[in-house]
Write a structure and sequence with these properties.
single chain, about 350 residues, mainly alpha, 13 helices, about 80% helix, about 0% strand, globular
């Protein structure tokens, strides 16, 4: 039931990322993200105060939390910040936003592990409501950009539907969708099933917590580094190298004997690649299509990410139930890394120049 709830959460997160993205493009990111935090608070409240079984569990942890994440987590905040910057330094700015998320990802497993032991799961969820309240207040200050570049000079204003049609007719956008699908599969497989996988390998308890905490900590380094590199080098080449590196790191981790040293190695190295995909992926979308509908277009790319996330969360549990092992899910993750490393190479990163004459 937990694997199913996380899978539902991933899908709703993906579905609502472009919906909240459109709201942000039309009415401002502050309004869209604030609404998301209200829904997130409702979902968390239902988890610790409601029946918390069956359909109620799927609605609270799956539907409501997933819907809220479509507004609060990465896609909309990253895109809204990206609108304020030029192609030259946008990846650095969005890298800073992603790094801030990584700080939370580093602290959350440590806080949760401690709080569960001290006060139990219900009080732990109540504590998380304070984070939701802080996020809701902070979201009110995500003011819209005044420039909203759309790579247009002296042509008529592009509509939302025209922007969507243009994006899907561009081969590079479709390839980005494919690549980000792989990212979602891999990170959700790790985030959801690494505790079970470590237990399967005889390393129950702290090793899994250490891995998740190190991923959060070193993701700060990775996202900032990738944000900086994105200002200097081709973003598609950086993404290709990143996915190739994931294949190597996952292979070393699963084919090596289990140990605390290997757990630390995986947490550090995979952490540096964890959300490092976000700044260059968002940067390529903005660079090609401009920023007028950036939250919407990146939201659609993020939907592909979350379809991969659903499959990663579900297949990890499915293969374990079927074969008593997570190995097949890891093999798929390695193969997908190779696929993603290749599909980014043909992307044309040059901005679209629209020449339609104003009537």
């Amino acid at each position: 039931e937990f694997g199913l709830a996380i899978g539902i959460q991933m899908i709703f997160w993906g579905i609502f990322a472009p919906i909240f993205g459109l709201l942000a493009d039309k009415f401002g990111g502050n309004k869209a993200v604030f609404i998301g935090f209200i829904i997130l608070g409702l979902g968390i409240y239902m988890i610790y105060s409601g029946p918390n079984t069956g359909i109620f569990f799927q609605i609270s942890l799956g539907v409501l939390v997933g819907t809220a994440l479509g507004a609060t987590a990465l896609a909309v905040p990253v895109s809204e910040v990206g609108k304020h910057f030029t192609d030259k330094n946008r990846t650095l700015a969005t890298g800073l936003v992603t790094a801030a998320a990584s700080i939370g990802y580093f602290l959350a497993p440590l806080f949760t592990k401690y709080s569960l032991g001290e006060v139990g799961w219900q009080e732990t969820f109540r504590y998380f409501m304070y984070f939701v309240f802080f996020g809701a207040i902070a979201s009110l200050f995500i003011f819209p950009s005044k420039k909203n570049s759309s790579n247009i000079s002296g042509v008529k204003e592009q509509t939302f539907l025209e922007a969507i049609k243009e994006a899907f007719s561009h081969k590079g956008y479709v390839l980005l969708l494919s690549g980000f699908f792989v990212c979602g599969f891999q990170i959700t497989l790790v985030a959801t099933h690494i505790p079970g996988y470590m237990q399967e390998r005889g390393m129950d308890g702290w090793p899994a917590t250490i891995i998740l905490a190190l991923i959060g900590l070193f993701n700060i380094v990775g996202t900032l580094g990738m944000g900086y590199l994105g200002t200097k080098y081709s973003k598609k080449i950086l993404l290709s190298l990143l996915y190739a590196s994931r294949a190597v790191i996952i292979s070393l981790f699963i084919f090596s004997p289990p140990s605390l040293v290997m757990s630390i190695f995986f947490g550090i190295t995979f952490g540096m690649l964890w959300l490092s995909t976000v700044p260059p992926t968002n940067g390529i979308v903005a660079q090609i299509f401009g920023t007028k509908y950036l939250s919407t277009l990146f939201g659609i790319v993020f939907l592909s990410h979350q379809v991969g996330a659903f499959i990663g969360a579900f297949l990890g549990g499915y293969f374990y139930d079927l074969y008593g092992s997570y190995d097949y899910a890891w093999y798929i993750a390695i193969a997908l890394s190779a696929f993603a490393a290749l599909v980014h190479l043909p992307i044309d990163e040059r901005p679209i120049v629209r020449t339609e004459i104003v009537s």
